[in-house]
Amino acid sequence: MKRLASSLVIAASLLSTSAFAADLAVKAPPAAPPPSPWDVVVTAALMNDYNFRGITQSNHRPSTQGGFELRYNWNPNLQSYVGASGESIDFPNQAAAEIDLYGGIRPTFNKLALDFGFWEYYYPDGKCYNPVPALCGSSPYGGSYVPSTAALGLGGIGNVVKEDESFYEFYAKGTYTVNDNLSLGVQEWYSPSVTNTGAYGWYTTGNVTLTAPTSWFSNGVGAYASGDVGYWALGTSDAFYGFTNYTSYANWDLGIGFTWKVLTLDLRYYDSDLNKAECNAFTSAQNVTFSPSFVTTQNPNGLGTNWCGAAFIAKLSASIDFASNLK
C-alpha cells in the first residue's frame, strides 16, 4: 500500500513538472522595445562640378559636400525633419561656402509622398565685387571690396555682385511611386529675392526615375536612370543690379547612377537655354569674355560667361542612415 502511494506521489510530481515545463514553452518572449521615432542621416559627396539649376556654382571646378538630416517619425505616414549641408563654391564675391539650412514635413499617402518645407542658402564672408571701389563703400551693400576682374567691357564697365548673396525659398514636392521600377516627381520652389538680387523666382521642375530590377546585378549593386526638366521664372532686380529684367529659362539634366551599400556614383549631363550674355546678366560671373555680340539692353557691358552651358558631372556620394536611439 505504501509503495502504491509513493508511486502515485511520484507520478503526480512528474505530471506537474511536465505541465509546468509545457506552460513555459508556450509563453511568448518579452516584447521588444518599440523602435525609436528618431533617425539621423549623414551625407558626403565629391563632384567635379557643382551645378544648381543648370548653372555652375563652383566655376566648373571640383566641389565637396557634407551634411546631416535629423528626422522624427510621428507615425508611419508623417515625418518631420531639419537639416544642414555645406558645399564648396567659387563665387565672384569670394563667399567662403554655401551653407544650406532647411526643415519641413513629409506626409505620405500610399504611393504618393509629399514634402513641404523652407530652405535657406547662406553664403558667409562675401565681399562687394565691383570695378569701382567707391561704389562698394558708398552703397548699402558695401563693405570689404574685391576688384572686379570683369571690368573688361565697354567703358570699363564690369560685373557687380553684392557682399551678401544669401536668400531663402519655400518648396513643395510630390513623388508618385508607380511600381518598384518607376517613380514620377514634381517640385515647386519660390523665393522673393533670388541670390539677394531683389528679383522673385518661381522654379518648377519634373523628374522621372527608372530603377533597374535587382535581378540585373549581384553583390548588392543597384542602378538607375533619371532625368529632370525645370523652368525658372525670374523677375526684375533691385537698383544695385540696375533694375535688370532677368531672362526666365529652362534647364535639364539626364544621367545614370550606380549604388552599392551606402555609396552612389552619379554620371549626369546638365544644360540650360541661357546664352552667354543672358547668363552673365544673371550670374555676374568672374570668368567672362567680351564680344560685341553680347551687348544687349539687359547686358550692356558686353560680357559673356559659360556658367550656364553644358556640363558633364560625375558625383560620388555616401549616405548613412542611423536608426539612432536618441531620447
Write a compact overview of the structure shown.
The chain has 327 residues and is mostly beta strands. The protein has three helices and 18 strands. It is 12% helix and 46% strand.
Q: How would the blueprint of this fold be written?
A:
Layout: H1 2-26, E1 38-47, E2 51-52, E3 55-56, E4 63-75, E5 78-87, E6 98-109, E7 112-122, E8 128-130, H2 133-138, E9 145-147, E10 167-179, E11 182-191, E12 201-211, E13 221-234, E14 249-260, E15 263-272, H3 276-283, E16 289-290, E17 303-304, E18 311-322
Parallel strand pairs: 8-9
Antiparallel strand pairs: 1-4, 1-18, 2-3, 4-5, 5-6, 6-7, 7-10, 10-11, 11-12, 12-13, 13-14, 14-15, 15-18, 16-17
What does this 3D model show about the protein?
It is a single chain. By secondary structure, the chain is mostly beta strands. It is 12% helix and 46% strand. It contains three helices and 18 strands. The chain has a twelve-stranded antiparallel beta barrel. Helix 2 links the parallel strand 8 and strand 9.
